[in-house]
Amino acid sequence: MEKYVIEPERRINITRTCDVLVAGGGIAGIAAALAAARNGKKVVLIEREYMLGGMATLGLVTIYLPLCDGEGNQVIFGIAEELLKLSIAHGAEANYPAAWLGDCLPGSTREERIKNRYLTQFNPHLFALRVEALLRETGVTILYGTLACGVSVSGGIITSVIVENKSGRAAIAVDSVIDCTGDADICTLSGAKTALYAAGNGLASWYYYYSSADRGSGKVSLKMFGLADIAQEHAPQIPPDNNKESSGITPEDPYNAAKVASLDKNIRFSGVDGEELSSAVITAHKKMLADILGHRKNDETYLPVTTSALPLVRMSRRLVGAYTMDDTESRIYMPDSIGMTGDWRRRGPVYELPFRALYGHEVKNLLAAGRDISVTDAMWDITRVIPPCAVTGEAAGTAAALGSDFARLDISALQKRLTAQNVKLHCALLNP
Questions:
Q1: Contact at 8 Å (CB) between 390 and 338?
Q2: Band of the pLDDT at 110, cuts 50, 70, 90?
């Protein structure tokens, strides 16, 4: 029996053209598409699932982590803050950031902002629907159920992206591409240099459940079932929610690594192997089912409402860019900064994110955003979460509106445009 087959050569029609193709509809992809379209570009966003938001919505990782440094200073602005506000436009599930939004008193003092970081918990379904509506209103073309499966590269430039969906294979002609796949898929397909996360990923599978016995009254709550490898010293400083009636964070799930740990420390997966991913998801589902049935022994009303529809991959594969940022570079001036982020796990650090971490040397018209940017393993755990994903997404989309040879892009023009979009670039601009 043959161990391989030869796929027949075939002609693939170019069915669309666009200025900017964004691959991946997670938070980074949403921000990138929004920024590029607002800056006048024709944008196509491809997403393999049938809902936007990625891990934040389909993965049920519904904690919009801090936009602040933990010391009372907001460090993330622009589209990242816009999306936070949009996520709770119909009310927060927990931790409404009253001290930061200024529409609830008391809660506007610096002391309150230090005590209560600028974060929230949102409903994933409402958020996904609102984001889709926003992108449509902005003129972004969204192609659901669409996977990038190849690229055409000529002279170090991507000329088209080959996609596949229910219609079959087709090609989309592009001026530039932003890789927001979370696994650097476009980078890999185009020949850009990439790196894998050395430690791999642990098991996790979050779910919402209903219980009439929960806190004495029936409600739907989020079960963070497996938190995967957050070291105890880096356990996030999320304040307790004072509104017990609306909180989705249960007493048994206080986002504490000591109590919510990896489901099986012996199981590790890279996140970029199809069979391995399937095996990891099945194992996580088995453990989740056992957890649910265990609760039902004491509470017959305990039922799952919705479960993660994606494997909860945290770090998998990323671009090796013109610059690789490390977590030791807190509060270091970056001349090509495209925005800032704090550290969601602890108070104090602030990082200026360099544009050089978004592009590499091999492919001229390709940018990475979100989980795909060029950072060390230590820094990756900081930049993979919602707020910095939105920051790098906005920067990538804005850059793609200004040019397509990103190593030669006018950084001052990019920074001027980002500043006009209410992005703060340097630590020196923060309030004392």
A1: no
A2: confident
Distance between CA atoms of 121 and 3, rounded to whole angstroms?
A: 50
String of DSSP letters for 216-247: GS-EEEEE-----S--GGG---PPPPS-TTT-
For 245, other C-beta atoms within 10 Å of its C-beta total: 8
CB 50 within 8 A of CB 431: no
Weakest-pLDDT range from 190-194, 222-226, 300-304: 222-226
Which residue shows structure tokens 């971490």? 357
| Count, residues in the chain | 432
Q: What are residue 72's phi and psi, to 5 degrees?
A: 95, 5
Instruction: Tell me the pLDDT tens digit for each residue of 60-99.
Output: 999 999 999 999 999 999 999 999 999 999 999 999 999 9
Residue 408 φ then ψ, to 5°: -105, 10
pTM, to two decimals: 0.92
For residue 113 the two structure tokens come to 């902002």
| Structure tokens belonging to residue 304 | 């799952």
State the Cα angle at 140 between 194 and 136, rounded to 5°: 130
Q: How far apart are CA 34 and CA 4, in angstroms?
A: 43
Report phi then psi at 339, rounded to 5: 145, 175
Contact between 41 and 401 (Cβ < 8 Å): yes
Residue with token string 């927060």: 92
Beta bridge partners of 172: 16, 161
Amino acid type, 39:
N
